[in-house]
Structures
1.
Amino acid sequence: MITLEGVTKTYRMGRIEVPALQGIDLHVGRGEFVAIMGASGSGKSTLMNILGCLDVPTTGRYILDDTDVAMLGDDQLARIRNKKIGFVFQSYNLIPRTTALHNVEMPLIYAGEGGRTARAREALGAVGLADRVNHQPTELSGGQQQRAAIARALVTNPAILLADEPTGNLDTSSSLEIMRLLSRLNAEQSRTIVLITHELDIARFASRVVELRDGRIVRDDTNAK
Amino acid sequence: MNLYEALRMAANGLLGNRTRSALTMLGILIGVSAVILLVAVGNGASVQINNQVQSLGANVIYVYPSNARGSGGVSQGFGTGQSLTQADVDALNSKQQDPDVLAAIPIAQSGGQITYGNQNYFAPTTGTTPDFPQVRNYQLAEGSFFSADDVTARHRVVVLGQTVVDNLFGTTDPIGQTIKISRQSFRVIGVFAQKGGTGLGSQDNVVVAPITAVWAYLTGARGKVISQIVASASSAGTVTQAETEITTILLERHQISDPAQADFQLQSQQDILNQATSISTALTLVLGAIAGISLVVGGIGIMNIMLVTVTERTREIGIRKAIGARRRDILMQFLIEAMVLSGLGGALGIAVGALLALEAPKISALATSGFPTPVVSPTSVVLAFCVSVAIGLFFGIYPANRAARLHPIEALRYE
């Protein structure tokens, strides 16, 4: 499903070169639930950006669902993001002044696909927001907003779900609720999920934990459930 | 992404900041309404001038004596020559060499005080022949025009324009009354129907008498001068032929072989109309251009606001890119937003401009000052709308392009 081979990423800050990733080899199979952990500055955000096709590696190969995406241009990457990746962000990132339903429809609009309203309603139903479809983000609680964001991530039926600190802004009970939802999606629908977090409690929900330090993988364990 | 979704997104974006959208629209609204109104005024002036020139008589050709030249070749000014004679007029009326000339009349002008009872008034007196109403397109409201016999016998009879009647007679019936022109008595035998039109020498401020009587009693010492010949062509289409025929006849009669040396000059109604039209077109263009400047200012306002909007919504742009919007999608979204803003402003501006144009004649101060009735042409409406949408497109490209080129990661991080 996901294969990274010798991926490096170097940022240029003026004249100084900052290595963020220094050779990552990683394989994530279909239906896996992987947590990527690491302190800030470990390179996990950079890895997330590359996995999410928001950025391309400096060197190395990234094969997502049989497509080598390392060499693609902006619009091709946009297409990959639209079709194969579902994003869940720490700060929900719903589009303001837009109903939950329209937010969830948005990826389908960009994909130019039909039957949008029905599919968006179905996705919202799957995360338990069937009765909130016409609410705007400001009318939803944090947990509800994150569930709407998960519905938006899933509506295009992507190859992987990328969750970047999805519980970072939530209280404990809402966090638990979101993590249970992700676990259920993984277990019932065999969704491939890559979760980025720095909290052990949250990482525990995943079946595999990868730890980054200074741009390298230092641990890759399968959680004993 | 289809147009409906794009418009929906644009509406959503614009409604998110109503006050700002409304104020930006106001800029375009003012510009477009100014264009519509000023162009309408220009068109109105065109129509007014056109009507006035047309009312002088259709298919009319004027023949003026050329400028007289003194012994040293010094030109003495327009119309000072005395090269035209009654024999020229008769030749033009013979219709043998000029089948396209319907009729030709001589004109002798005389100024002079006109009095009736204790009223007095000043109007030019025109001496001419019985074809005058036909050639100059006058209708009689009362009485009759003078006949060929009146001309032969130098009868002192006059036909008056409505303005003259109003000033001299008030409510009295002028027919049969005797007026004095430069202390000579003339009997009123007819009154012309009103021709309307203001400014530029009213067509109703006329006193017309047999040319022989004018020569005998009014121009006196100056003799039998013909200041111009007015001819009418058989139709609008034959004006050019008629002009050629008149030139040929007069050159032959005056024994001039080189047309450049002609001692007369021709001017057709069409020439006057063309001149007037070119003046009013220039006027309309200048007015339109002045108003156009405010439209450009409005456009800059749109660009400004779109730049602010793009900056404010950087994060939203990042989200859209993350979930699959391509550059083109973002570009379209902001372009359409700018175009909706300017197009809506334009449509409202057209409404406001047209309303002002329609209401302007109802302001009495304007109506009485001879201000032209504005004419809103459909072309200017369509054009104004297209231009305002185009302004949105033009001034929206830079901000929209800026949005489309944002890097998704940086845009997502923007707070």
2.
Amino acid sequence: MKVLKIVPERCTGCMRCELACSYEQTGAFQPSKSVIRVSAFEGHTSYSPYTCPQCDEGWCLTACPVEAISINAAGAKDVMDEACVGCKLCTIACPYGTIFYDPARHKAFKCDLCGGAPACVDVCPRAAILYEEAEVSDWVGPFAAERTHGPGGALTAEVK
Amino acid sequence: MAKRHVIVGGGTAGWNAITTIREIDGGDSEIILVSAENPYSRMVLPYYLSQEIGEAHVFTASETRLGALGVETRFGRRAVRLNPNDNKLILDDDEELAYDDLLIATGSSAVRAPVPGADGANVHSFWTLDQAKEVTASLKPGVRVAMIGAGFISFTILNALIKRGADLTVIEIAPRILPRMVDDAGAEIVQGWLEERGVKILAGAEITSIEDAPGGGKTLKLKAGANIEADLVIMATGIKTNLEWLEGSGVEVNSGVVVNDHLRSSDSNIYAAGDVAEGPDLLGDGKAVHAIEPTAMQHGRVAGANMAGLDTAYEGSLLMNIVDVLDLEIASFGNWNDEDAEVIQIVKKDRPAYRKLLFNGGRLVGAILLGRSRDIWMTNDVGMLKGLVQSGCDLSEWKEHLRGNPFDIKRAYLAVGASGSLIPETLLGRPSVPERDIAVQS
């Protein structure tokens, strides 16, 4: 299956992925409505996007009591608005923190790989997000571990 | 002859067991579902009450759908006796059903506080669809509702009651509201939030009787303080497991039907799942009844897999709840009330925001989150807290940082590799299949 492969070393923190994602998903250029989120490390000198790994278990999919989450043609777990009642069970079941909830619409939403043409990949100027055949992996973990230790990392002041 | 599975109970656990059996055997067995009610999702009843969804939206497994899955039904029937020696289940119309294996998924029922008048007119429970219909029909703008019990169930319908125009008073016998979901600090914030928005709350209040008032209303008398006048009383005073029918069966029962990590009871061809089952606890060596929807779903799937002949072990259930009341989000995970845990917490009363992280060594074992909906969903680390509890990743070196800023969960989550440790995890050792995609061979 084609997945979103993240290469954090290339990310500049430009937030274009968040803007494109929110526009594609909700029609608004509003990073807070994006389902890909950029985290800052080392005092905002390095960055990485993070989004749904489209995990095999599909914690959101199995948690939904009204079968409002299905698998779309791109293989992504996808919330069907008309079926979602907004109970938020998926948000506490998903251990990745990649199910989102819109309190204004009372609906859950998540990365659906834009149906097979991910907007975040299109707009990334540094190819830090790729859409390709790969095993689902923790693309960000090792980078985040490295960038939270050492000079400027969140743990530097507290940990020797 | 094909193996015959009998499923007792058509709720979340039973339905998930059925779809899992069919996912695995493709129709190569007999399944009989005994269900007193037509199967529906209890989780969505609050949205039916608020009239955001119609009745059709609540049903899960219709006769048509079950028929397409090759499932025979006994709807409107209750199991009255189980005879493991003969592998027979006896129904309330005296039908005897022989089984090769059987799933006990009879769930739980609402219980009413033992107060004179608790079974009187205009006093309702909110647990089954029929009860939800009664309450829905009784609501109109301005109706005075006295809700007895300030627990999770009560709070799931609070928004709907307000939306429907109810004038709401909540009465809780425990000293604080949400006694089984948040601690004192959390309860204080929630109570303040609701009172500022016009909900009257009486905690630590004991009702001595519920009487008919002149003019058709109800009068609730309290041990201390003034009477409460209401048009409608809703009792959300807890639930009990539906175990009575198992008396004399010899199946081992404690708080629920005791099951092992394969969801098998003391009889190896009798399984139990959901609210009625006492199964492995993810956070300890013991067993627990976690009467929540996600546990019922997982129990049902694991039991179904084993009934279909796979050898599937269950790691255990994790207690978790989330509910919002008038745009205040409240969530808790795991051992949020563990008195021996090392606690990191922060209270911001004005915002309001509260979070409590509970550690056993470097391991996060529980959490409470509370805040305005728009804040909580902006941060969106609810699931990451669950992932940290579930994965058991070592947060030792992050504890001091989190003590200074318990809101910076995301970087800790990423850096300890929680995501990487979770990716290989599946409940049944294979990718999940959406229930709607499961079909039987024709």
3.
Amino acid sequence: MPAEVDGYPGPTTGRHPLDSLWRLRHYLRPYAPEFAWLFLAGLAAVAAGIAVPLVAQRVVDGPVARQDPAGLFRLAGLALLFGLAEAVLIFIRRWVQSSSSLGIETAIRADIYAHLQRLPASFHDRWQSGQLLSRITTDLSAIRRFLSFGLLFLALNLVTYTVVVALLIRLHPMLGLVVAVSAIPLFLVARRFAQAYHAASRRMQDQQGDLATLVEETAQGLRTAKAYGRGPELAARFAVSSRALHDTAVGKGRLLADTSARLDLVPNLTLGIVLVAGAGAAAAGTLTIGELVAFVSLQLLLIWPVQGLGWIIAGGQEAATAADRIREVLDTPPAILDAPDAAAPPRAQLRGRLRFSGVSFRYPDAREPVLRDVDLTIEPGETVALVGATGSGKSTLLSLVPRLHDVTGGHITIDGYDVRHLQLATLRRLVGVAFEEPTLFSMSVWENVTLGRPDAGDEEVWAALTLAQATFAYDLPWGLATRVGEQGLSLSGGQRQRLALARTVLSRPALLLLDDPLSALDVHTEALVETALRRALPDTTTLVVVHRPATIALADRVALLEAGRITALGRHADLLATVPAYRALLAAEPGPPAGDPTPNGLVRS
Amino acid sequence: MTDGDNPGGDPRSAVPVRRPRPAQENWRGIAVDPDADRSRAEDTDPAAVARLRARSRALLRNLLHPHRRQLAVAVALLLIQNVAGMAGPYLVMLGIDRAIPPLQAGDAGPLTYIAAAFVVATVAEYAARRGFLVRSARIGQAVLLDLRRRVYRHFLRLSVTFHERYTSGRMVSRLTSDLDSIGELVGGGIDSLVLAALSILSVAAILLWLDLPLAAVTLLAFPFLFWLSRWFARTSAVAYRWTRDTIALVIVHTVESLRGIRAVQAFRREPRNQRIFTRVNDDYRRASLHAFQLIATYSPGVKLIGNVTIAAVLCYGGWRVLNGHAEVGVLAAFLLYLRRFFEPMQELSQFYNSLQSATAALEKLAGVLDERPEVPEPARPVPLPAVGRGAVTFHSVSFGYYPQSPILRGLDLDIPAGQTVALIGPTGAGKSTIAKLLARFHDPNTGAVSLGGVDLRDVADADLRQALVLVTQETHLFGGTVAENIRFGRPDADDDAVAAAAKAIGADEFITALPDGYATQVHRRGSRLSAGQRQLVAFARVFLADPAVLILDEATSSLDVPTERAVQRALATILRDRTALVIAHRLSTVEIADRVVVLESGRIVEDGPPARLVHSDGRYAALHRQWLDSLS
């Protein structure tokens, strides 16, 4: 499963690696006071933590040596106080951290989702949903983890490091400088690690997205896979992808292992140098033994902040590449938006005159246009059937009206308004579409049917269901409250089509676009639906894609679409009589059992 | 629905009772299956929870088992690292005590030895740490890979019924988000567990050896630690289970809205979707917040116990020293070691937290792995006969998706090998159900379906799929090229065979017109191809698969008439000596059948060759008349 490279807009190279993360900072802003507090609490907790052993030292040197019980209890009380303070401060820090980092994560996720809903169908055609999904789950957790721990400890560790080194230099300038200079190899190791890890973590996140895509696709194609018994092949394909992810993860682990062992090595070696040089200094009498002990114990405080550095950088890089991936989505501008001066004419003003003039359309990365120079006018209340061979562009033409795609040439008008100059909400309220594939969501029947009109009343829903011959919904185990399974799969194809039709009718559109909406219905039910449609929607302008001669009875006129152009327009009977291509497409005689030879040598392989 | 057996009644009478409030609470609707949101093993009663925990532990043991040697090596490396690390400070002390006096006397020997030992210890620590980290990453990732593949394979084995109630979003959630949270545990933490346990044990021993009464005071902290940990274990297990459930809903909602984005946009569903998303997103936030707040309480709680203990030891120890019961040095050492004692506890609490989160995820996966396929592979498969493998028999088959609403009742149907049978009848008569039973997506409740005289329950899946293919109107294209999708029918077919299949079915023309011909990527679920074109690809696929039995369930519904006819011609050639079960609403498809079976409410009401049925005065004749009328 190769990653689809064409899905990623804009190069992510050439920018600073932390640029994307930095650009997410406005999500942090509402929590700035919290972050300030938790940083202070973190600092204070570190201080309190350091104070406890200092107090203990005092006890040994002071009251115990001086035989002073009162002093002992006083200092023990102080130690208790510091201990309590440390625990309380840690509690505050973590508590505040939880709510602020989760708040940020939730806000970013909601924004990505909102943006995804705004992006047009062409974006979703191009992007694999698993890649999008992994962005709002895995990538966001990486950012949250960095915000809640990495960032804080990076700051705390830097402060600790600086303070300790300053103390060391004050204690003994020469040895202190040795320790200070050890920061240079640390910095070099860290920088190299950061670069290598950046690439690895991006690769891993992309592979996680690929894997999510693969899983999602498997879930979708499960029936097909079962029907052909292709489980082993799919499992093998999954094994390859998951192996790739595994290899990347192991590589990342190796990088981290190398670096974190090296980061450990530096302070240890420095300690060795300090030991030798310090012993020399002590022997020479420029340093007391007590000072050397103090120096070494202080230096030991540096080990943890340095050791943690590897993990912090790793987390930071993961957050940075995750932010890159998120920006790739957020930076894609929604191509289909309200025009600045978009009109919102009241419904009563519109009669539903639909006009295509010189419409052409090409899919973003296709060479050939799907539609060329389509001219068609549908008068208010008229029903036009759109007929054409498989793949002639019928569904594409329909999708242009509610602006699921925008035309690439010419324009579409409704009562003189260019659809691009109508507010999207207004336009999509005017236009009702029933798709070729009825999309039902895993929700109640009610919710599915009222998709376009959440405020519909019981009577209206009942009327719509009756019209679409979908009253079976009332007989489901929980009536309209029954959750129809994923994509309504627990319903038959015909049942789903009827629910989708009820949904379209319920939205009371001025313009009805039906994309072969009755293909899964039997002749009898289809006839009932057609009669009901004609009765219920006498004023509604309708454009209907049909394959079957029977459905054409619904239409006043028929348009023949051939290779993206309208080549004939007129009444069914006239076209049948005068247009050979039309006759070939719709001639009614049933196909005789094959008389002509068909290549079949293959079948017997 | 209680009055479901009265379809003639005015459905409006049911409206007031069944009406869902369009409140957000109800948007998901009521699932027919009470287990819709989880695997069957996941139940809420304590016994089931305990059972699942035990199972997830067993799963973990099972996953780790192949790596036990490597694990032992890793632990050994960890010990070396620890010992080498401990040696550092000790050597420093040694250097100060033993090397400086000789140095003052001009003898640099001891210092050289100590410095050399120090370098050796440091290098050993470096090597052991690196070795340990690499090895633990390898083990962890191997376990993760194993688990991921196991769960994926198991999902493929589970029946269609399971997937229908579990939904794909939840499957995605299990295989991504849940595995991620186990991956987090694998990514780091094992070392803290081992090291912490190690230093706690060793330090406890040292403390006991140093001063018994003082150690007793220290050990007083343990009941509190135990109590706190038990509280955390209980509450966090519930909390993390909750986060797993809520993130699954976020994923389910996202997957569905992205998949149905056209419907979402066309019906201006965005605001309501956003509200629902905000809600599931916020549920997940609250669930996570709850879990985080538990650890935000637990971790400082451990710290608190440690600090109070230190203060108590300081006080009691100081007092003992004052009274001459203990040495000052012992107190100093005690205090130093006490720090080493409670410091790992912090890391341990962190690890415990990741463990709880991973365990919740592991429980979900264990629940899935525990799910038995409702359509199991036979233990002792019976091979299909070489001759007559196309004979299909339904013997008094009864079936219903829910026990309260049977769809087929005692159906008997005998299709000799090579016969093409058209199955017709009104929507909901049970046509697709027969197709699914024959394709063994489900097993009948009673009775048997057999192929070539062998009960389907005794046929190995690979044999069955080679002999029989079901094509429905939902044609799924997998990511990859058009050629790969056709080859799905027979993975070992070469390019020529693929092209020949496409040509035979009449798909060649549109495929060669695609930008890259057969190598064109179909992208996301083939949204670039029209529904009709996808059906053509599906037909090329089945042509290539060349099964003995073919089931077509509305498989030509999206084709225009000439294309459908081309497909039919190609099919007629295939079907001539194949068994076929064809379900179609268009009677044109029925014309190629040898025999027509009319189905009504799960029963066969007419059965015979189409020529005879047309002239009888039955339902088929009526349908046929209706159809002819519709054509004119």
